[in-house]
Design brief:
It is built from 19 helices and eleven strands. It is α/β, with parallel strands linked by helices and 532 residues long.
């Protein structure tokens, strides 16, 4: 190393983190000390030794005993929506923004999540990856699902910056054949998929006009996307398909042993009960690619086992953060699509306006990091500089900061645990000047409470919530319902499903509930539009 070895272990030297396999001993969490360990009596639970391990990209474990939270029905706030009453804050055990008043988190309610942060095996995998392909040795083969969308184009921007570090194996796109043809010409994938089979001839025509002779294998429809997801020797699949449509391709990629760069939050929100055991069975890693969960994941690098206490998700407040709640009945579609900080697709921008995106992220954080819902909070941070935070047991708060740019979390999801040099603007705190925070308005944003309620109920209720939200957003975009009808439609659907919830659903159960919730939600009639 050009600076030489320092006295303290640091990521600057490979040898600074090179303990023999037999010396892996992790700091135990206070809540786990009553659990018997191999080779020790259950009554002898002292922490004898631990290593504070530091390496860029080393994710230390969070080992907790797991238990399922009790299911609950919809909160009083949510139940009042469809009757046209003003929602009131329900008597929950925790505030959305400030957590419970208890001094200690419910550590025994945490479990092993999808992200590689809380098992000995994932820690060793992180270490192995961190030291076996450094610097010029790094090279990654990737497949991108949703290549012509926001996630896909930004991922390809990263590839364009370091074409020697990445190889594009497969691309799956919607209907933008012109852009897909340009991507094929530049990145030369071995296989592509397009949603509409009728556009295959048009795609071939454009490629021929461009002089592309090495035409890749072309698949169509959802079956085609699944084929792309599991194809060949791609190491990581970036899941940028919007909505529950990304679930089946993600499962196919996991079964093929590929790592997942998860930019599709609905995969875990709807399919978490199925996805978690599949990841374990097939040895795949699930790395978050959205800004908030990437921030949590990055903040967890180097946190020892038992060190995590709380997760704090930050929210910009969306398009209507400066609007009074009494004015939201005036909202038009074009208003909801004006996000103050981020350049995103239409669906997620509307989710940000309702703050359902943050509610969905709470459920995703639950599945990614194994956190109990009482230990996941939301705080409004209008500048979107702190992308999320964790609180450790000693009350330290660790955050990941950066300009609002989706490329950074996307980059880390495909390079983890490495840090790759990029020609992007550095964060200038002096230029920024200040950062502000406030608690979210639970009356103004009832979708958050619906998400917490669905998450605590668990099972298929989160799939019903997600599908109902997608249906509501689509109907809002088609001017079939008003903006304030979005949470009412979701609550209407959840009420219709509450007596049919399956606590341990199969994939078939999840897909059936997803289809049912869309059809049921479509029967919702807006009182406002009926009156008009």
């Amino acid at each position: 190393h050009p600076l030489g070895k320092s006295a303290s272990p640091s990521p600057s030297t490979r040898d600074s983190f090179n303990p023999p396999p037999s010396s892996f001993k992790l700091m135990s969490h206070p809540a786990t000390l009553l659990l018997p360990r191999a080779g020790s009596a259950s009554s002898s639970c002292k922490v004898k030794r631990y290593f504070v391990l530091s390496l860029v990209g080393v994710a230390c474990l969070v080992l907790f005993a797991s238990s399922s939270p009790s299911p609950s029905l919809l909160s009083p706030a949510a139940s009042s929506l469809s009757r046209g009453k003003t929602a009131v804050a329900p008597p929950l055990n925790t505030k959305i923004g400030l957590f419970s008043s208890r001094k200690k988190s419910r550590c025994n309610a945490w479990f092993e999540g999808a992200a590689p942060t809380n098992t000995r095996e994932s820690m060793e995998q992180t270490y192995t990856r961190g030291v076996t392909s450094l610097g010029n040795d790094f090279h990654k083969k990737i497949t991108i699902l949703g290549s012509t969308g926001s996630i896909g184009t930004q991922t390809l921007d990263i590839v364009d910056t370091h074409p020697d570090k990445f190889e594009v194996v497969g691309l799956a796109a919607g209907s933008n054949v012109q852009l897909l043809a340009e991507q094929i010409e530049k990145h030369k994938p071995k296989i592509v998929a397009i949603s509409n089979a009728d556009k295959v001839d048009k795609l071939k025509e454009i490629l021929k006009a461009k002089g592309v002779t090495d035409i890749p294998e072309i698949a169509t429809g959802m079956d085609g996307v699944v084929e792309v997801a599991k194809y060949g020797d791609a190491e990581t699949v970036v899941t940028g398909i919007v909505g529950c449509a990304g679930l089946l391709p993600t499962i196919a990629a996991i079964k093929a042993g590929k790592d997942i760069a998860l930019a599709n939050k609905e995969t875990l929100i709807s399919g978490g009960p199925v996805i978690l055991p599949l990841l374990k069975e097939h040895g795949s890693m699930c790395i978050p690619a959205d800004s908030e969960h990437s921030a949590i994941f990055q903040s967890l690098q180097g946190v020892p086992a038992g060190g995590l206490r709380k997760i704090i998700l930050t929210a910009s407040g969306g398009a209507f953060r400066d609007w009074d709640a009494k004015d939201l009945h005036k909202v038009k579609l074009e208003d909801a699509l004006k996000h103050p900080n981020w350049d995103m697709g239409a669906k997620i921008t509307i989710d940000s306006a309702t703050l359902m995106n943050k509610g969905l992220e709470v459920i995703e954080a639950h599945y990614l990091f194994g956190a109990d819902y009482d230990d996941i909070g939301i705080v409004i941070h209008p500048q979107s500089i702190i992308h999320s935070m964790i609180e450790t047991q000693d009350t330290s708060v660790i955050a990941q900061l950066g300009w609002p740019d989706m490329r950074l979390p996307l980059l880390y999801s495909i390079t983890w645990p490495h840090r790759m040099s990029m020609p992007w603007d550095s964060l200038d705190l002096v230029k920024l000047g200040q950062m502000t925070f406030k608690e979210p308005d639970r009356v103004k944003y009832p979708c958050m409470e619906l998400a917490y309620s669905a998450g605590r109920t668990g099972g298929t209720m989160t799939a019903a919530l997600n599908a109902a939200n997608e249906q509501a957003v689509e109907m809002f975009r088609n001017n079939e319902i008003g903006f304030l009808d979005i949470p009412k439609l979701i609550e209407y659907t959840m009420e219709g499903h509450k007596n049919e919830v399956k606590a341990k659903p199969s994939l078939e159960d999840i897909l059936n509930v997803d289809n049912w919730a869309r059809e049921y939600g479509a029967t919702y009639k807006s009182p406002e539009l009926i009156t008009k």
